[in-house]
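The records we work with from here on pair a chain with its fold. These numbers are not coordinates but entries in a learned vocabulary of local backbone shapes. To see the layout at work, look at the sequence and tokens printed below:
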Amino acid sequence: MTIGELAKTSGVNAKLIRHYESIGLIPKAARTESGYRFYKESDAQFLRFIKRARSLGFSIKEIKTLIGLWRNKSRASKEVKALAKNHIKELEKKIKEMQEMVDNLQSLARSCHGDSRPECPIIKSLEE
């Protein structure tokens, strides 16, 4: 299939497919005699795997590790679980940081009159 067909089948746009190729996340595509990329159904499955991992917030580095584990049929599932649990910890840390940002902004927004006066605790806080 062409890159356009692969994009449609996998749900990953052609520009991102080319990017993944350029960084070595996916193997280089086979080429026709005229130089066009040519893909197989297995390439679409590969891209769907990557897309799903990205939707769960895994980094490119983590996805490379997951791909290695996916391809290794003799892998220990504990390796996959450890990677997932580590990712969960990172997500929880980010959630906590974001909740602190929300709390701070809510506090600042409550203290702002939101009227025609120029005084604004939000701006004042950003100045500090």
Helices lie at 3-10, 14-22, 41-55, 60-71, 77-111, 121-127. The longest helix spans residues 77-111. The chain has a mean pLDDT of 95. The radius of gyration is 23 Å.
